[in-house]
Fold these 4 entries.
Entry 1:
Amino acid sequence: MKKIEIPLEENLGHGHLACAGCGAAVAMRLTLKALGEKTVMVFPASCWSIVPGSWPYSSYRITAVHAGFVTGAATASGVRAALDVRGDDETLVTVWAGDGGTFDIGLQALSGAAERNEDLLYICNDNEGYMNTGTQRSSATPFLAWTTTTPAMKPKENPKKDIMAIMADHQIPYAATATIAYPEDLIRKLEKAKGIRGTRFIHLFSPCPPGWKMASEQTIKISRLAVRSRIFPLYEIENGRNYTIQEEHRVVSVKEYLKLQGRFSHLTEKDIETTQRNVDDTWERLLRRARC
Amino acid sequence: MKKVITGNQAVAYGVILSRVDVISAYPITPQTTIVEELSELIASGRLKTKFLKVESEHSAMAALIGASTGGVRTFTATSSHGLAYMHEMLHWASGARLPIVLVNVNRALGAPWNIWGDQSDSVSQRDTGWIQLYCENNQEVLDTILQAYLIAETVRLPVMVVLDAFVLSHTAEAVEIPSIEEVDSILPPFCPDYPIDTQEPRAYSVITTPDYFMEFRYKVQKAMEEVPGVARKVDEEFRARFGRGYGAIEKYGKEGAEVLLMTSGTVTSTSRMVTKKMVEKGVSIAGIKVKRFRPFPSEEIYKAIQGAKKIAVIDRNLSAGVGGVFAQELRASLYSREERPQVFGFVSGLGGRDITPELIEEAIQYTLDHNRPEEEILWLGLKK
């Protein structure tokens, strides 16, 4: 495999307001390095409406279009259309949305854009809940997790929505998962996505210390354990059919992942066993899809 | 070139002649023939415009916000529930100072289901920071779209052009269609100050704290205050070029009449006929057509009503708990004035019920016969 160079240029400037240990801040820094300056990034409401700071300042060194919560993919479709009319087919139009803005309120606009195969790179920064508004559950929140709207005495009853399967079934040219503990993999996928035309989707997994009740120095570790425990496998799907799994052979039990996070501290041994079974099933399902 | 076309076709001609760059729309009755016509024109290669066929009105407006931020001329059309669904994004478009032009074909909102004409959709968007212009006939529809771009791109606020469902949208009448060269001579290409440019990265619509937010809104209000002057100039230039102009309002009927009838949209055409007939019979009555609803033409109206004792307003809309919206706006605009004629607020024609000449005559007669209205809302043509 070709050695991945991480560009030295920094497009996320100083003075941003992300929390200590924010996984997404690492992800944003790496993403902006990979995408370069000829990028327009659309931001539907998420932590990233706040993180760059307020008017008249911004930590983004790229063009940032802040947009309504629902509208990431739709606003970006319009930006793309304007650039096309102006004869600019070089500038990359991206969306950076949270899991709420992708799995929930923004799903219709995203599905519309994907069905039209809009020439966009859509990045879903998934921290598994509405973290910007104080950790409420989203449809990306995992089974049995605590959030402020799924209290520990009645934690989340439903499994996480399989957004990758949904996107794959739109038969878009490229969809991939990535997370910050594997920066070369993230950069490679972003660069690959950059070279493709049509709707490209990156499901980016970003640990959130306050929302997950985890220590801020554990961000990278938890990101890595998510992959090793197969909670968040790394893979790519081309044209909705061709799967490539970046298999992590140093497999650990889900317990190793869960025990570092306060949002799972109420789980019983039985709950952990159930979670392990669910994760095993989901992994098998992915392998079946990949084999087809 | 004169052609017999429907209101919705007049909209399509307005879009072609304005050299719109990006359209984004979602179908809804009675707007549909606009998007059909535009799709045909683009498919045949006669119109070089990018048309995003999005999955909802919310996305239609969001896409235009993206495109307009990108620095190109944009257009959408909708009706009723579609406009209501866009509501959040209407605020966003004006706050971001984007000169988007939207055509709304007036239609009632459910429940119960109804697809016919009623202004409740557009008047309930009055606080969104959009300029609103109402049309009486298909010629005015075409001309108003051209004027809308001139106004929007000067004051940097979005414009809603409003026409009545079916009575205009699906009814054909003769319309003078200017050549594109003639329109080019008055409507220059859109040149925004700060279009997206990756060489000069900017952050658009970034979060703004209480320390600064109010000043942004103040500037929207100041831009609204520029509209009367800008719109007057646009209308005068348009009249000089094409021989047609509309004004913010239009007064017709008997000079010095003490009783006035205020209407908007197609009800005005019927009112012209009724007042003419009544004037011929010796009744002292004049009409006022309100074209521009936002910003409300308080000055123009106050000048036009000098000497009037009573004003009957026919509203084809209802703000439940208050009454007709044009009547309320008129009352509010008169409150601080020295002369305050009695305002008679009639509500009629909801959900597409015809406002017939007989009903208009009934409203005028009631106003002539009473010194003041017996009720806050006077229902016209209501089944007892």
Note: The interface with chain A takes residues 21-22, 24, 50, 52-56, 58-60, 62-72, 74, 88-89, 92, 195-198, 201-209, 212 of chain B (CB under 8 Å).
Entry 2:
Amino acid sequence: MRGRVAVLGAGGFVGARFLEMAVREREIDVVPVVRALRSAGRSAHLGLDYRLGDASRPESLGRALEGCDVVVDLTKGDPANILRTTESVHAAATATGARLVVHLSSAVVYGTLDSPNVADDAPPVVSLRSAYAREKAAAERFIGAHMKESRVATVVLRPSLIWGPGSPYVLGAATDLLRGSAYLVGGGAGLCTLMHVDNLVQSILAVIRHPAAPSGFYHVGDDEVTTWRDFYFGIAAGIGANAATIHMLPGGDYRPALRDRVRDLQNLGAYEWMKDRVPLETRTAIKRRLARGRDGGLVMVAAGSARPSVTREVWELQRTRFRLPTARFQSEFGRQNSVSFEQGMSASIAWLRYIGATRSDAAPMPLAAAAD
Amino acid sequence: MDSRTVAPDERPVPVKIAVIGCGAVVEGLYRRALERLEARGLARVVALIDPNAARTSALARHFRSARGFATPDDAFAATNPGLAIVTSPAAAHAEHTVSALAAGIDVLCEKPMAAHRGDAERMVAAARGSGRVLAIGMTRRMYPCLVEARSLVARSALGDDLRFVYREGHVYDWPVSTSAAFRRATAGGGVLVDLGSHVLDVVAALFGTLEVNAYADDAEATGVDANALIDIATPIATGVVQLSWSQPLLGGLHVMGSAGELILDPPRLDSLMYRSRGGTWEKVACKATWPRDLARRGPRETPRTHRDCIYYQLVQVLRAIVHGEPVPVSGEQGLGIVSAIDSCYERASSLRIPWLTAMEQAEADARHWRARRCVAA
């Protein structure tokens, strides 16, 4: 390894796991970069020195990237900031002389796939419904436009649903199963295009280790073909939820509901304007209160008693028929997926039990086991 | 509550308050409660103390009588406060508290009381020696749900053979202004010191003196614990506490006894469920009240928010100063929590993270902070 590796978005789900794996592999000298010190709390156990830097401001980011050979951009943030952040990362990495930027994009830039043969360098779809997908696509277009003349190599990875311990997808499915509000569209036969977080981190590490990683776009994903039925039934079995309570919804086109109109409102510029004027602390408090409202009474709710809360996003995900091919990545960087679906499910279940998301009143792992 | 009282004296009302440490805790939690006290004529903030002048001047905009100071001694000499609220980093709590008590000033010290047992003992001794009030800011004692839960336990509604599981955690999001909370040297530890101070105090409030049987955490190298697991015994209950700064732990406090069980979710002020053995779960009405001002038989109110609880806690501390009433949590009780935390760290082992591979767990074990200390020794 030639130099230090800056990790932007180090306080997020993928960023935190990246730090853990990189530190424990002892091979990479990581420099976590966060916008606010609060983001250091999640990985405080690792004892790392954090740098402060606002990824959407090149002058701020430049100082944070000093002395770093590689920049791993795992920032997520508000959709409104995605393109600006991508531009800023590119400018700062160029200015500080980094050799490589690893940019985490998403399979959402293709919307609903209608073919299994989408080339890695196929451009993102132009008309996408969600603001997140549109901005991710815009970020890819920016990178693509500057890739050839840039002094910094840029590798763009496109995973789909990142899962594993800590994943919102895993927690969301588990809480829905415990409440009895889980649902499957079309019998759950659609493809659940997963990428385990450890497989994603190993893929990023492989790009970093590559002596001359070639700029380009790469689809990445788990090896096995998995259905939504596999995913939900696997979690249900692991946490003691009754899979018979899963609401089976017929396939077909999605019918918009009230929440979709709310989502459409959120995609308006006026919503962003208003949100920017509400202090971060207030937004955090509101979000946490809403989350508590959603999690509340987990133990009390009788199985099968809650109505499914159907969203367009999940409906369309559950109707996925094709997955992106990953041969190009494997050809360039080697096969990096060490976690199978079975192993990933086992780890996810262990995590759900650890956080208390189970049907039973199981206690945390006893300390006697910790000493083994 | 602790039986310690101070003799009622002739403290003038409004009580003059000095705030030592003007970081996120004051801005995020105390400021509005202090403004309410001022608006009701119960107190007046006269001194804001912090080495960072930008912080004191930003806060001073909210308090007409407040002046900014870099050190407590300067502030005490210039403003003669009746109460010092210590909200500086935990490592400085002992120094700031002892100096205030030595100057004849009553103290409300924010949790964690101290980074180490020795510091907490010094604070308690200073309070005894000076005859002043030393209160510890454990705001959850004001929560109506905890008051009702204590009542259920006290009247044996759960029976005996009490066992509990207490899970509390979420991804850390407190708007810290420095990294002091993530350094063992300045904070004394991680999630155990931070969230654990509250959680252990809730357990102590319900079941009495804590005895730590076993403890494990995930701190590696120079890091602090982001996840912790404690095996605890008290005079009337045994159980496990699980804490996290990185995981959304679910369930709250679940207590099971021979006659019934309860579930308490302390981040919510009114969340208490109870069922007798074989019965169905019922929500318990949480309507505990606290005095809203310093009138001896004045109006009482039920807190609705965490910030309300900070206000009522401050009122109760002022009542201790003015009327000699007990404080919600005394220095001695705070010392009990610090001692339990010290006891945890003294016996810390590497936490088993059940989703790690054996190889990664072995690496985490090898990097555990206690293991590295043993090797270094």
Note: The domain at 4-167+195-224+322-340 of chain A is CATH 3.40.50.720 (Rossmann fold).
Entry 3:
Amino acid sequence: MSVTLVNVTKIFTDQDDKNKEFTAVKEVNIEIREGEMVTFLGPSGCGKTTTLRIISGFEQQTKGDVYIDGKLVNDLPANKRDSSMVFQSYAIFPHLTVAQNIGFGLELKKFKKAEIQKEVDKIMQTMGLSALGSRQPSQLSGGQQQRVALARAIVNKPRVLLFDEPLSNLDAKLRDQMRTEIRRIQQKFGITSIYVTHDQDEAMTVSDRIMVMDKGVIQQLGTPFEIYSRPVNHFVADFIGRANFFIGNVVALDELVTISLKGREFSFPTFNKDVKKGKRATIVIRPEGLHITKQSQEAFFNGTVTQAVYLGSTMEYEISVKGRNEPIVAISYNPVLEGFHKVGDEVGVTFDPVSAHVIS
Amino acid sequence: MIKSYVKRKWHALVKLSRDPLLLCVIVVLLLALILFIIYPLLKVCIVSFQVDGRFSLGNFASVMTYSNGYYMKALWNSLWMGFATATIGTFVAFIFAYSLTRANIRGQKFFNLIATIPIISPPFIGALAVVMLFGRNGFISSTILGMENANVYGPKGLLFAQVLTFFPVAYITLRGVLESISPTLEDAAMDLGGNRFTIFRKVTLPLAIPGIASSVLVLFVESLADFGNPLVLAGAQFPILSVQAYLEITGMGNFAKGSALAFILLVPSVSAYMLQKYWVSKKQYVTVTGKPTQSSNTMVSKHARWALFAVCCAIASIIILVYASIVWGAFAASWGNSAKLTFDNFIYVFRVGFESVLDTMVIAGLSTPIAGVLGMVIAFLVVRKRFFGRKFMEFSSMLSFAVPGTVVGIGYILAFNKSPIYLTGTLAILLLNFIFRYLPVGVQGGVAVLSQIDPSIEEAAIDLGADSHTTFRKITLPLMIPAFFSALIFSFVRSMTAISAAVFLVSARWKLMTVQIMSQVESGRIGSAAAFSLILVAIILVAMSAIKLFLRLKYNTKSSILTR
């Protein structure tokens, strides 16, 4: 079941002042393929939830069209759309038991009692809820409520599954566990899914593709690898993970891009299409792409360690460099082998051009 | 710009038309609200501004000059009395509420119960008790103090009765306000080095100010609208507007002048209500979160606690005295003259007024559930749906809070006394009046509950394929059950004790107990009036217990009905 958005725009009008308008979603175009899981990722207020609510039918777009399975659904109310949503607050009906919650959709579809029972039992088994059927929602833990919400959505065999920040109310460990479980179930049933989150790790774990949004506009749409390693602009590079930015001038452009930085030239194999010869460009290097060495003439930069944080599996450094406001962030993934550095150490920083990316 | 606006509205309409039932309900409700709330009020305005079918201020001119400004005096008296009742009532209520929420005094449950009793009483009890205690044959004035010809009629007696009748309303408001002010704020102030009085002055009181202002305005509106107490106690020397409007219409049959008086009464009531709803209530610092936090009990010193306890005891004993006198009066052979106890008053009531007891129960029993359901539906539509006329629906359904019953009553007889809608003297006019008059209780309760229910719970139902009426029936309504039953009890109590509007609408066929009590009081049969009142309270208590029992058995909830 594909989902297609064409030029979808949502403008909210101020309740009190009709002239005040706020564009929440602007000209969004995306095609989500059958069985695919796409994540809408962005900071709060970027329009990701609004876009999801437009797809579910809870919000009416101001302009543009929504197609589900090639059919225009603009005027179809939410209850007639073949999608199921997992809500941020789970939205478990507090006056119904777990089994009644899960069976609610089937009951509306006028399934027979025995059939409902069978389907509900089956899904509860899959979700590890078997023993909880007669419980009241108030007796469930956060993780169990999350499972009930998911089971309630899936039991109806929806053709599109929508997730609205489903894990944001869980603690860190449970979140990690649930996101792999969501992915497992999604792949098992092969349901086309859209997942809204502001957590990039979550997006990386569950998605086939990620749509990064900011201020209502799509910034980049691509696989987790593309988003992280080939960001199209400063926003994406900065929002997804941590990044060091180095601004220089493009002196040559062919298979490689050559950038002059403080009188030295560096060449990189990957760069965006909008990088132009003679213009300024930004080199994006992730913290793990940088290596800390002794100070030397060959080093990319020489500087002083201003912060060293031991995180067990990794060691994080901030290195200040003369003439640069931002400190450089570097991560050492095997500090025991690579050696520790202390605050105040004079160090050099090197990098491998393949782990860098150039944006305009 | 315009194109997109039209397109948006069109989509909204298309969506709404997919749900024909919803559209129908909205249209029918809007029409009903216009017909039974707005139209009667409009009728009062029209009649008051018309002489011989043309626009004129003549009615107001003649009202103002009538008998050397007698009615101007009534207006002044009403305003003055409203203001005095509001300030004194709020002051008393604040002491009570503060003692019960902050001072950790003994017997909190008892005091809370005592303070809520006047709410379920018929409108005359305060006045009746004042007469019985302080009147010519009064227990205190005559029997204890030995005064002869004690005159209780006039401002002092009325003020006492009104404060007694209305301070519980302020108490409930202020208790909610004080409970919602987290005691941790006071703890923090103390931690920063403030002494107890400074903390009260600089933290507690400023935070409670909007609540206090709101309570003053609500009491002002209630006092202006009060009809029962002034009818008994005001007397000819101290005219009160609501009573004069009633007398003008039922006594003289002068609808134009009566309407003009009603209009004059309407202006300050609606103004105070608007001020409260759209200004003061927006200033509230703390939104009620539902869960009262436990006070750390250090805010009041030992001496202050004893002082507050003594004040609460004094207030409580006045209330107990009032009700004891009613009970005693109902059994007394002749109040003030003989100490003999009999059942004569009750026998008299059943012989003369049994019909009115049945009528009242039929009317309250029919109108209450309808008002409750309508209130829930309107609350749901107003909070959850977006449609043309939503603001109007909210405003008009809540309007009865602001409009004195006297004005509504006059509006109803003006609006429904000729075809196409001829309802005078029927059961329907009483039912409609009660339904639309006590609608706001349900709407308010429903709105409060709904705003606490996460909208995504209903969205989840819609998402799973439910249309809007299935969602309402299967999800929203069950969640609103506690609010629904609170509304039910409240509007039942209000219907049973209603007089100010109903007094215009009763007929030989359909009688109300409150109106019967009124005529007993007017003809000086204080004992039978007390017996009547007692029966009324008993019916209310039985009905309340029945609903509570039903709730506990069916839903396993103990909703705190009176501490809404």
Note: Chain A has a mean pLDDT of 88.
Entry 4:
Amino acid sequence: MPEEIPNQRAGIERIVGIDLGTTNSLIAYMEGDKPVVIPGVDGSNLVPSIVALDPVDPTVENPRPTVTVGNSARRALIENPERAVYSVKRLMGRGLEDVQDELKLFPFRLADDIEPGEVLRIRLGDKHFTPSEISAYILRQLKRNAERYFGAEVTKAVITVPAYFNDAQRQATRDAGRMAGLDVLRLVNEPTAAALAYGLDRAKEGIIAVYDLGGGTFDISILKLNDGIFEVIATNGDTHLGGDDIDNLLLAVALDEIRNEHNIDLRQQPDAIQALRKAVIEAKIILSTEPVAKLDIELPDGARYQREIPREVYEQLIQPVLARTAGPCKQALADAGITPDQIEELVLVGGSTRIPAVTKLVDEIFQLSARGKKSHTELNPDEVVALGAAVQASILAGSSTATEELLLLDVTPLSLGIEALGGVVAKIIQRNSTIPASATEHFTTGVDGQTNVAIHVLQGERELAADCRSLARFDLKGIPPMQAGLPRIEVKFLIDANGILQVTAREQRSGLQSQIEVKPTYGLTDEQVETMILDSFDHAETDFEARQLIEARLEADTILSAVEKAPASPAWQLISEEEKSTIEGARLHLEAVKPSGTLETIRKATTALDQATRNFAEKMMEAAVSGAMRGKTMQTASEDLGDAVSAPHPFAPAEFK
Amino acid sequence: MSESPLCWSCQSVLPASPLLCPNCGKVQPPSATEYFQTLGLERKLNLDTAALEKEFHRLSRRLHPDRFARATPEEQQWSLANTALLNDAYRTLRDPLQRTEYLLKLEGLEIGEEHAGKGKTRQPPADLLEEVFDLNMQLEEMRMNRKLGEDDPALQTDLTNARTRFESLLATVDADIATKGAEWDAGDAAARDQAAKSMAALLDRRRYLRNLVRDVNEVLTA
């Protein structure tokens, strides 16, 4: 527990490194020459990427919406599933037509009035939030954890993104940082960050590969290490491939078997599905270390669905999912112009690389054991990306001698092109080009006196514009009226070190800087982002201490109101009298210190109450699950997204991506 | 750049189109420049790629935006523009073919995809007319077979042989380009002019052959 605040040299502002993950998020910084993860108030390094909108106090007029994030949001998920959301990273920078598959598998509730091409809005209670706003809440929680730890404000950060994220997904991530009150100094690709974390205490030379299979995304990056320079030579991946896909597969199999053997269709029972999902995730985790896992679930009619899953069966089942990582690996090797035997070191990143079948596949693709090599797993695969982000933060800050000789040269994962006549894409920056990268193109008019030219910018490898990802439509305006074909408009496309596109244009004959109006296809405008900056930062100038005290009291209120409702829960009967009195003691203490206590005493009392109720909270969740299975608990949400699974699952264990 | 430019920071005289001030190391405002100059190289086709990589790394260390996270917004912008230029230059010059294409463009020759009639099938080189005609027939037949689910091992062998043949033609072209490149490097103005024209024609031939090999590969791996 970070009860005592570490001393800090005054005047140096820390830059933190953040891994904003699909399943879990982390914040880290460079402590001397070593990157370390900053734990949250509950002592855990991982903050589950779950956000729940707090219930509104009916006695307050025009209440400001407040949210709960991370482990504490799991509790809220049980009570108010329609007010919570997880795995929101899958929606970042995406449009309605991109996410139809996600909607079938994840309980996202979207606003009804989203037009194609518009930024998505997620419903929590009666409010709507963009994916960037939800991510901003997670980032703000991480920021607070760091501020609590340092006892000082944190405003600058490096945030990691999947290497294969496109421009829109990157912009959405950067917007989220801004909304959370963070100046995002750099977006770093996750596998590259992992390489930095490993490279720090090695000073290696040679070619390495990073295989990163997380909760929702897959990346492969190949890097050349040379005297402190980490030069990415090729990257590839799939932003919709990860542990979630294995969970969904196991879930589908279980649902089919239950229907066949018991003649019960659970597909329309969201609560039951979530309980089943929890069970299959647990089985998946067990199968990483044991030869067999058991499923034993009570069905609504009282019968039991019992199943043994031997590892061989499991591995056969998930083979097609894992095999999808082979294509990107081979493409990356081909793009790098190397053969597998030239890979000297291989780093495994992401919770899903704990699966033995994954390590086996990686071993085969890169011929590791055949060459007497083993993949690197020394650093915790859940933490390595955040640690690398902290290293990059230190490079930017110039704050550590350990990092002053390091430099990351990353690449753009996707080719950039413009739509030419006939809907064909003309590539102007090839994938795997080192960033920053630029290209200059010239345009002219087709009609006499024409004063604007529209340019459609795309990202992707396909030949036709319709098959690529639309990035933006740029309207070059204010071209001086001239004969057709006479204007010569020079447009400069520049992909910056974050992998984000910038465009400038100039009419060369008149020398006028053309005015460019940028319409991002799936992004928010600067003005929109401005309006979404989280409320609490309206008062950024107010005294930091005072703000911390207010936040500590709010945290205390949240937990106190949850504990007050505890005796009404059936789970209350499941805990010992001794525990009840410990909870009561902790509750009374927090109530007593809340109004006038110091920051530290309030925090200590909050932590103590949180600890005291931990066992109860777990019992409560379990009770809710088995209750759901018998159809006894809360009404399921009336809104149904077709045959989609439409209840959030609060149970994905925090330890797994 | 009419008179000798001075470093904005230390006022020392700068070389043409500098990325950084050689005296104080400060990043300089972007100035129009070509890739050879950016990397401090003579305009030559034969170059030492190991030395090129070293220079690229040396400049990257001092120029990259990561080194300017705490600098003024203006210097950050200059670092971004100059690093993009450095990266573009290195990417182009390290590859012998891109290097040749780039140099020929600098010399005023029209070269590359945009002058080759985009998307359309172009005329095959005269000496290959017959072979290409046969190959296209075979490709068509193979595609048809694929569609109907039929198998023709003889055709498969023919196509595999054709691929080998055209790949060897490709290698010959590459060798010829290298020879002409050496002639360009060593020659006087007239010899350079000749060599440049030959290389432009060879690059066209190469592009045609490469597309052909790609088509065969597509059909064989379909």
Note: Residues 544-612 of chain A form a domain with the Substrate Binding Domain Of Dnak; Chain:A; Domain 2 fold (CATH 1.20.1270.10).
